[in-house]
Amino acid sequence: MTGGGRVVGLYVHPIKGLSPQPLTSVALRAGGGVPHDREFALARPDGRYEPGRRVGLPKGEFYTLVDEHRLAGLETHLDVAADVLTVRVAGHEVLSAHLERDRDEVLRFFARVLDLPEGVLPVPARDGGRRFTDVSRRGDEPMNWISLLNLASVRDLAGRAGVDAIDPRRFRANVLLDGLPAWSELDLADREFTLGGVRLRGTSRTVRCAATEVDPGSGRRDLPVLRLLKQHLGHEMMGVYARVLSDGVLEVGDGFSGGGAVDGEAVGDEAVGGGLVGSGSGGGGSVG
Amino acid sequence: MRPLAVASSGAVPVAVGPLADLRLVVADRTDLTPAVRRFALRRPDGGPLPGYEPGAHVTVTTPAGHQRSYSLVEPGGEAPDEYVVCVLREPAGRGGSASMHDEALVGAELTVGEPRNRFPLHPAKRYLFVAGGIGITPIRSMVARLRAEGHADARVVYLTRTAAETPFLDEFGDDTVHHSAERGRLDLWPHLAVPDDETRVYCCGPLPLIRAVQAMTAHWRPSRVHVEEFAAPADGFAAPFTAVWAPTGRRVEVPADRSLLTALRRSGVTVDSSCEAGTCGTCRLALLDGEAEHRDFALTDDERRASLISCVSRAASEEITVGPPG
């Protein structure tokens, strides 16, 4: 599966459920994730999260797009160096606050957006070194997996479903790939490949959740992505997780090569609809 | 399903509900603008009609047989003697507005459903009303009620193309009335920049206006922002209903924009889930009473008789009783 595959986008989501932030390059380390990805989350005050917890929790313990689609109507940016969160609404800045020093202001802002009762605040979750990725509950090693999305698969789904386009930001991936056959990323589970100079190993196909139904721009639930996947592909997977095997800098434009035993054949519909579901290491926790 | 009020003409088809139909006559028709005509509907004997509150609508069967929902423009009350609706003639429409304009003559008898209200006026210290074009109709009923009651803080932003195309223009002399043909589009941001929990925002108008108000209130409490949605999203949420949780008898209100699953969880009921999109079946519940509107991709027809998938399915009746999966 060598050839035209390459990295066309890199994203970090410093705060779970909030806006993706584009990167031009990212320094990866073996066994590590995208720096700062999902290192902050807003936990439910009546839930199981406690500061300092070292074990992953299911996403239902946090405020995410699955339940709180309006969060996608906020354009957020965390300056990870300064620890300053900026929120814009319809292009206008409505919050600029330091995550620690202005913590109350930040929490009150989100309590309002989440319509929490008077006096109730979300719980800020940030525990050095931990990530609130959806796969974190599978263990500390999966917690650091990076997520890959194949734009050809996204386009193929849109074509089959007869919709104009599906915004890839719905899938909240770290790495966007293009130039590969549609759905070939699902075959990367259990296979080694390289992106630029970084070696990775596919670990798990990504079973999607209803957060993908939310339009990233408007924060409206407007497209039944899971239902379309099930109807047109017979599964609910899009993208793949991978473990980083070597240190290196990943850049937009880096080429894809490898893929182990697969030699460049496109994965046909039959294979996708039949053989892939439930085979290999596909499955696992459903994620947004 | 919300009375898809006023796409542009003031109406689109809606399902008929269980409420009784009335036979009313057109008592008066007046042109408010070249394209908007006002119809007063009364009982043939002139007797009192079922009451309604501001924001209510009625479903009218036009002389040509279309069913259209129109907001009632008067402030309402317990036993009004007429229902007043305003209809924008829509040349590109499917004939409902043309039938009303051309065929609903004074004296004509029309079938009219009892008023329903899916856009109710909630108590608040302050109000901001944003109306676009014919979307003024429910807003006018609300503002008329509030001002009649002496409510001091009800601001109105009324957007139309020209003064000549502005129904009820003289009633909004002290408000922000903006004509786009003269001054371009109004920037709503100054009105919405600062969220205020004590202010309720009501918006009715064309879809782009509703979307703009929704986008500009993303930092507000969602419960303070009320919009008259013209069409239920194809796979989105629809009417609110009540769910009774059988083990405790607890009654849980499920608002239009929340799933049954989310509403149950918010009230302390534990329900397992996984995909939350109606495909995996994890959040199946027993359906013990009432009728469900099944929207899942998990259950067979047989299974649907006694269960439902709580992340997507809703009630077809006003109330359903559910319990843990059997």
UniProtKB/TrEMBL annotation, chain A:
Annotated SUPFAM superfamilies: PK beta-barrel domain-like (SSF50800)
Signal peptide: none
Annotated ranges, domain MOSC: 115-259
Stored Pfam families: MOSC, MOSC_N
The organism's place on the tree of life at top rank: Bacteria
PANTHER family: METAL-SULFUR CLUSTER BIOSYNTHESIS PROTEINS YUAD-RELATED, MOSC DOMAIN-CONTAINING PROTEIN
Name the UniProt record assigns to this protein: MOSC domain-containing protein
Organism in which the protein naturally occurs: Saccharothrix xinjiangensis
